[in-house]
Amino acid sequence: FKKNKLSHLPGLRSMLAPMAPWSSLLPTTFWNPGLSWQWNWRNQVYSKFGLQTISTLGFLDGRPSIFTISLDVASEFLSLKGRYHKGEETTSVLRLWGGNLFTENGSEWSRHRRIMNPAFSPETYALVWDEGAKLYQEMMEGERWDDENDVLISAINPITSKFALIIIGRCGFGEPLSWRTTAPESGMSLSEALAIVSATSIARMVIPWWIYKLPIKRLRDIETAYTSLDAHMKVLIASRQEEVSNGKEIERKDVCRLMMRANEGQGTLSMTDEELVGNTYLMLVAGHDTTARTLDAAVGLLALYEDIQEEVHDELQAVISTSGKIDFKDIPRLVKVQACFLEASRLFPAASAVTRTITETIVLKTDEEDGHGGQIILEPGTMFFIDLVGLHYNPKYFPDPEEFRPSRWYGTAESDMTTFSLGPRICIGRRFALTEAVVFLTSLLRDWRLQIVLDPGETKEQWRGRVLKATTGLTLGVGKVPVRLTRR
Ligand code: HEM
């Protein structure tokens, strides 16, 4: 059955295919691998078949898919052009407001990328650094931690989420968001609306729209979140357009102004109104949720591994003692801080899989371990997944994969940071995310010692099981991270 489509590879056979829209809404069980199987069953599935590339098939939805945890297969595949499209799982949830850089293929994709590329420049990263350092101070004052020596935070998650949203707002859209911004009287704040939309966008694809009109509070909140987010994005765009038409346009090439110019037909590349809103949504979601969720994991891990935290603090001290303060040009010397973020991202990759739909037959060489005559054939219509969770826990590339060992990333080239994918469609925001993460963690670790907050009678091992357990949705992250800050 469908053996050819599956390149005769053994693997998971279930009622619903993993990661298909309906199965994503249901819990992971043997009949429905759903969204969490990559985490819950990690390498068990691959080791059961002794393979690094396996197939999956849903009997009810009949969807043939192939998953790989092989870096060689992934690199070869992602360097190919034009023989596959972005996978529908991710594109349909990110296309809610219109086609954008993430969802498009071929020449449409390259048009979007050429419009936005200039915004991802050293000037922008320097701005991210400066705004990040300023925002950290605003956060200390806003949360009233600046006069305290000991702070108990029940969950770091909303803090990192707010931090990352304000940074993308200020540095990507020139929007003067502040730490003290309160929710509008009617509707929801941008962060609240974005959080609900991100959490429910998969459900929104399969559950009919009229359900959300029923007089049930949770459903009405979802409806309000969508209308509020729509209104926020329109205000964001309109205020930039007003600045441009009042001649107040700042010369800075932030992503919003570049899109605006393209939308007004200035320059050789253009963008429709729908694409402008589609890309605004994409930047708000991709530009904050991924970084925030990885920062949650990094804070949790550093709080758990206090010896590694001390090593990072020593590195910071050395940088501070020579230059007096830490500034943007010091980033190359902050190897250990960056490595902690990358290691958190290896253990908890916010983008858990890179998905593609095959449009033309592809023959890929496979690793010896795959034992399939050295090749797999991907037929048109097959879904192909680079399983970043499986790859990141593959001992062939990451020995003792369950261990938090940031030193794996000392001196790694940006192109080898698998968490941001590989090849031409590598994450455009990778340096943006790294700069933001380094400034956040550096500021926090410079001033505070982080410790985990245990429940009464709980051990660190139990805490690990409770907190550092992935939650899956549009992105993957950890549970609520309770942390104690003690002033250094
Ligand atoms: C820890 C943080 C981040 C992680 C782990 C991450 C991961 C990824 C991955 C794996 C992809 C490739 C997806 C695919 O090809 O299917 C991607 C693409 C993308 N990311 Fe990120 N990302 C992060 C931060 C950011 C930030 C901060 C921004 C924007 C400011 C951003 C914007 C994008 C965009 C627009 C794309 C689509 C690029 C294209 O297709 O040309 N990401 N990201």
From TrEMBL:
Molecular function as annotated in GO: heme binding; iron ion binding; monooxygenase activity; oxidoreductase activity, acting on paired donors, with incorporation or reduction of molecular oxygen
UniProt superkingdom: Eukaryota
Alphabetical keyword list: Heme, Iron, Metal-binding, Monooxygenase, Oxidoreductase, Signal
Cofactor: heme
Residues binding heme, per UniProt: 427
InterPro entries per the UniProt record, alphabetical: Cyt_P450 (IPR001128), Cyt_P450_CS (IPR017972), Cyt_P450_E_grp-I (IPR002401), Cyt_P450_sf (IPR036396), Cytochrome_P450_Monoox (IPR050196)
SUPFAM superfamilies: Cytochrome P450 (SSF48264)
PANTHER family: BIFUNCTIONAL ALBAFLAVENONE MONOOXYGENASE_TERPENE SYNTHASE, CYTOCHROME P450 FAMILY 4
Family: Belongs to the cytochrome P450 family.
Protein name: Cytochrome P450
Native organism: Mycena albidolilacea
